[in-house]
Amino acid sequence: MKSVVDILNDRISAAMVRVTGRQDCAAIVRSATDPRFGDYQANGVMALAKQIKTNPRKLAEEVVAQLDLSDICEPPEVAGPGFINLRLRPEYVARELLRITSDKDRLGMEKGSEPQTIVVDFSSPNVAKQMHVGHLRSTIIGDCIWRLLEFQGHTVVRQNHIGDWGTQFGMLIRYMYQGAKVSHMHGATTVFSVVDLSDMEEFYREAKRLFDADPQFAEESRRYVVKLQSGDRTALDDWRLICDTSLSECQTIYDRLGVQLTRDDVRGESFYNDKLPTVVADLKKAGLATESNGAVCVFPPGFKTKEGEPLPFIIQKSDGAYLYATTDLAALRYRVNVLQAGRIVYVTDARQIQHFQMLFKVAEMAGWNQRDGKAVGLVHVTFGSVLGEDGRPLKTRSGENVKLKDLLDEAVERARAVVQEKNPDLPPEQKAKIAEAVGVGAVKYADYSNNRTSDYVFSYDKMLAMDGNTAPYMQYAYARVKSIERKAESRGVSIQDDLRDLQNLDLSEPTELDLGKHLVRYAEAIESAAADYRPNYLTSYLYELAQKFSAFYTECPVLDAPPDKRPTRLLLCDLTARTIKHGLSQLLGIQVVEQM
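^ thats the sequence. predicted structure below, dont judge the formating
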């Protein structure tokens, strides 16, 4: 079943075609900004009138005359210079609510008619380092995009592109061989005795210092890189242990965040290592790559240096080493040709905009963005930075990036105090479970509720507030509805029995109809969030839903309602709870709780 806005777009566009005979008509239906004038507004008539040089209001009246929306809307109204205002009929809202409530899994939403295979590249933590706040946005925004696209019916392939190859591993392995940092087993394979990631991170910092300061250490580190690249068994075992230690720590964070990434989704730079020479050779063969100051470069048109010179996309350095650009091109080819992607979505911070613009352009020049004569969509989803209260990137007092584990621990600890204040009589285990859900959910929701392209200030106090557009408020709204259900059961009222044979709804109260209209528009919020890769569209919808439910519950008794009104109100309660749970749990990956 299409969303309301899609149905209205189709019908009004068809009426515009009948009136003008043109096939390129677009109704451009949007939610009305002022509910006094209706629920939706069609804005496309004015642009069409300008194209065909006619009076827009007269054209709008002609379109309305050709329009039959009687099964959905009250009679359309022409307003201003050519807007068409639309108001949903209560009967239509009632039918939709009954249809939606009968679908236990998808709330009445069908999967898309044109599914794709879509690769979503997100998270990309650093090997040998703990995940920090800088990894938060890519990880959770990417996970939400995956969830939204999969719910729409696409086959979505998660890819965690990590930096697990290169000189840094040579210098780290070399450093870890010093002193008591390693132990030898059976005189052959070397196994590190220290596998704690925080220790390894310290080793990495010290190894980098030595690499820059000690030529002998640097040379020995390069020898380990050669061993690694040549397939030396001991070097590979050491390398795998470093990667395994890092990825195990990452998995702990993913599981805690409710992010669906697993080890099977990891495609590190090492995976593409043997494909890099072919990338360079093929670009040379196509006449796209040339030597410049000893390096091999592609010069995509439209990119300039500050001096106005052509900007190179370097794919091989003068010493023969490959770069991120080379690996990204190899990954793109793999995703198009092997994973059969119809679209590839990269989720990274906005500082990488130019890199991806150049990557996409080079792929286009080489024809690597094509499969079976069709262009593969290449999308760069950017996001801003997480800032501290001082307006600068969030750091510890010592100036280091805040570890993601520490950030989550602090949020959960603060949430525990909130739970203790709201419900001190709960068993300790239940308090701990609720605190984890609320604390982690607060961090995620605070990020989602901001426009992803903007920076935002990280504030525990704001994100854990029980009012406003926060996770605790939404989780409390869900728990509040569930408490109504528990009260109903304590009075011997079976909600499912009341709803089972319900054939008609009475939406005569304004807040009932207002809540009902919002519930039937859930599909629109999902479509918008998925189309623009913006989770804040979904959080805004859910927050407004909670507010409309609060207004309804204040004005309309539920359990004490007359027998003819109670089933309708129980349905509104039940569907509100299911929608909030679906949005939070299934699409945003945030746990709901039955009690706060």
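Confidence is low (pLDDT under 50) at residues 179-191.
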